[in-house]
From TrEMBL:
Full protein name: FtsZ-binding cell division protein ZapB
Source organism: Granulicella aggregans
Keywords tagged on the record: Cell cycle, Cell division, Coiled coil
Keyword Cell cycle assigned: yes
One of the GO BP terms on file: cell division
Amino acid sequence: MSDSGISFDEFQALEQKVLRAVEIVKREREARAAAEAEVVTLRAQLAAQSQQTESQVTTLNATLTQEREAIRQRIEGMLSQMDELL
């Protein structure tokens, strides 16, 4: 080349660096898109799990309330029987 500033080898090296930079950016964009898709999936799974847990807690509370009521009635019955003995 003439005295224009850079040689052919320098230009080739620069071209290779640009191509590598483009590939890195492309891979990073693909990785970001994959990570964003995974976030969406995980948020949906978390919402479903949260809903399932809430349902289980509601069911457990209802069961415990029924059991408490049954025990209360049994105790009242026993107290009534004890009152009859006195």
